[in-house]
Amino acid sequence: MLFTSLDYYLFLPIVALVFFLTPVRFRWAWLLVASYYFYMDWHPWYIWLIVGSTLIDYTAALQIEGAANKQRKKAWLWLSIVANLGLLFTFKYFNFLSGEAAKVARLFQPEFEAYHLDVLLPVGISFYTFQTMAYTIDVYKGFAKAERHLGRYALYVSFFPQLVAGPIERSRDLLSQFHFNYHFDYHRIVGGLQLILWGLFKKLVIADRLALFVDEVYGHPAQYEGFTVWLASVFFLFQIFCDFSAYTDIAIGSARILGVRLSQNFENRVYVITSFNKFWRGWHITLTNWFRDYVFFQLTPMGRGMAWIIVATVISFTLNGIWHGAEWTFLIWGGLNGLFVALESLLSKPADKWLSRIGLSRGKPLRWLVDFALFFNVAVISIIFFRAVDVQTAFTLISQLRFWEPIQLHLSITDVIDIWEFAIGVGALLVMDGFHWLLRGQRIDVFLSQQGWWVRWVFYLFLLHAVLYLGMPPDREFIYFDF
Amino acid sequence: MTETGTDQRSIKAKLPELALKGSLILLVVFLPYLYLRHYDTMRFDLDYSKFTHKAEHLILGVSRAKVGLVPEVLKEELQLDGEVLNFAFTGLVSPYEERYVKLAMRKVKKAGKNQSGLFILSVNPGNLTKNTKKNRNPPPIYKLFLVNVSPNPDYLFRNINRTEPFLFSLLAAPPEETPMFVAHTDGWGERTRSSAIPDEEIYKKYSASIGDRGLSREYLENLCRLTRYLKDYGEIVLIRMPVKSGMAKIEDESVPDFNQQLSELAASCGAVYLNYLDSGGAYEFSDPHHLLNTGARSFTLKLSEELKTLGIPGEAD
């Protein structure tokens, strides 16, 4: 069930209404039924993977907490990690590794055939396995208590707003909320609806429209060069932001209606990139934090030197890249970003000194412009690896960036998509950025609650009309459903 | 006082405000949108009118039936009371897949029982063979709960067959030339011109899609189930539409006992089976599968005469 489908907007009010009419002690059960139904609407049999993962981690956490010695604790922790990574490996990475191994084998035996598992990638598997792994690791480290109520734990794994594409929640943040000891709150519901509406605008009016341009250029890499490739990559950066942050907004909004707080996954103007360190503090925050806490910190115990910190940074980001999919392109994208973050940490002080000497000290508008031009374009080039179908295509596109013909800039757009689609896409991007600028880091509902009633109604009417009249047909899945 | 009780009171207290704001949004935003979409979809969408009114007589199948059977000819020739609707679609996995069978049952149910309805079900190896490589994402018409409403919000808000932003479609001028496909409110998908695709290409594609898997047991069972269900609403005729000779040859080679299997199925499930596969030479075609508008009219006329001879449809119970 897509967040942009009619089905979801029939499902959500029914779930919410029954939820508030259900006695508090049974509300977890209703949400669990609703969450399983939500997932089974996509592929009924894959619910057993969620059930299996739930039972293993529920048991593992209880056993870890009650274990008599450290060896036993460790054994249960490893069981949980191996089970979750095993699931991921089977469904997400096996075919890729088998194919790559076969390529090597063919060097010695040309007729060697790769073994291929005929399985669909279960939607959300990368999200819920990471969430449950974090749970058992936290219980093992004593950061969280093992949940004794199997139903509430099952809901933590499968809570429908964040099941298929996050945010990846920690048990200490989410599990405690499933006691539902609060009441119906009209303003909370309105806040949730505002977030959902904003998410629909970003997805249907911006992301899916930019996708027209991006898909055309990336689908025919040999045909386009220079400005067109650069613009397609800039658009992809915005497309993925609008797509994924829209999903997150709708997820957070839906959960809010039910009184559950989910974590922020994006900062509003994260795409204004003037530093990679800052960028990664505001981009897919819950996943970045996951790799920081469970990979980077584990690799950098106290006393390690700078060189090792740099290596650990690159490793963490490379794994973050591979998390997105079994492709060399994701590995390169992750590795490059790790390298950029590490180099920035290493070089920012000497670079600051040097730039100050030539009159570009921090805080000056020109310095901001220099930083933005540099970091934004480096991010745009690296994201080519994220979007290209393979490494060769990525390098083709990067090499074609050299060919610029400024006089024909307008043809670079009209040769690719209808000029009106382009104009609406860019116009909507400006509206989004203007609104994000107005928010100044506040949540939409908080901002709107401080405005007059007519501002709120202008917001509703504008977005509703934009979604209904300018929205693309809502049959395109969210990008992160593939990960 | 229970927690639920408190919530119920809070919900009740907020109901008037919710109702007022909801009605305002409905009036200002959704109703004008619904009517504009209805008007626009009627102009461009060949399938929409199939879900806007009741029909006592239905034609079911895929594109061969959609293009080749003309409801107004059947109605006139057989002097049928009530609406005749061509309820066949292009792009289905199969009209005898579970979800489409349910959709057809939903459509028929709304017309009411004990009618002297006529139900023409088009059958051929293509729509009774299970091909796993076929379109996995067909238009989600099977999800429609509302099948006889005008305007149909279920259809419109599911954005079925929509390919561009609504505003673009609304502002688009009607095509100047006669289009190749003309939509009729009775569901007939008229073809006015021959296809530019070479016949050989179509033969190759069709041959690959049927393969040698034989007929799907599941689809045959669903067809029989649907036939038995429809018995309560009228009479059922299974027909094998005429095609070009090259196409007929492919079908005969792929499933040589098709006629025998379908005759037996029709007899056991309470239907009549009529085979027109080899009569393709008598009609004009748009492509090897599909009849041209003139061919469709002639064939429907021929079918009507044969049905009259067979005394179909008879009197209602």
Explain what this protein looks like in three dimensions.
- The complex is a heterodimer of chains A (483) and B (317).
- Chain A has 20 helices and no strands.
- Chain A is mainly α and 483 residues long.
- Chain A has 2 domains: 179 residues, no CATH class; 295 residues, no CATH class.
- The longest helix of chain A has 39 residues.
- Chain A starts with 5 loop residues before the first helix and ends in a 13-residue tail after the last helix.
- The model of chain A has no long low-confidence stretch (mean pLDDT 90).
- Chain B has a single domain, classed as Rossmann fold.
- Chain B has 317 residues and is α/β, with parallel strands linked by helices.
- Chain B is built from 12 helices and 7 strands.
- The longest helix of chain B has 42 residues.
- The interface between A and B is medium-sized, with 27 and 29 residues.
Instruction: Write down the Rg of chain A.
Output: 24 Å
> Which class best fits the helix and strand makeup of chain B?
alpha/beta
Q: CATH superfamily of chain B, please?
A: SGNH hydrolase
CATH fold-level label of chain B: Rossmann fold
The quaternary structure here is heterodimer
Order of helices and strands of chain A: HHHHHHHHHHHHHHHHHHHH
Looking across the biggest beta sheet of chain B, what order are the strands in? 2-1-3-6-7
Distance between the termini of chain B: 59 Å
Radius of gyration of chain B: 22 Å
Architecture of chain B in CATH? Answer: 3-Layer(aba) Sandwich
Counting DSSP H or I runs of 4 or more residues, the number of helices of chain B is: 12
Shape of chain A: globular
Largest sheet composition of chain A: none
Task: Give short descriptive properties of this protein.
heterodimer; A: 483 residues; mainly alpha; 2 domains; 20 helices; globular; B: 317 residues; alpha/beta; Rossmann fold; five-stranded parallel sheet; two-stranded antiparallel sheet; 12 helices
Tell me briefly what this model is.
By secondary structure, chain A is an all-alpha fold.
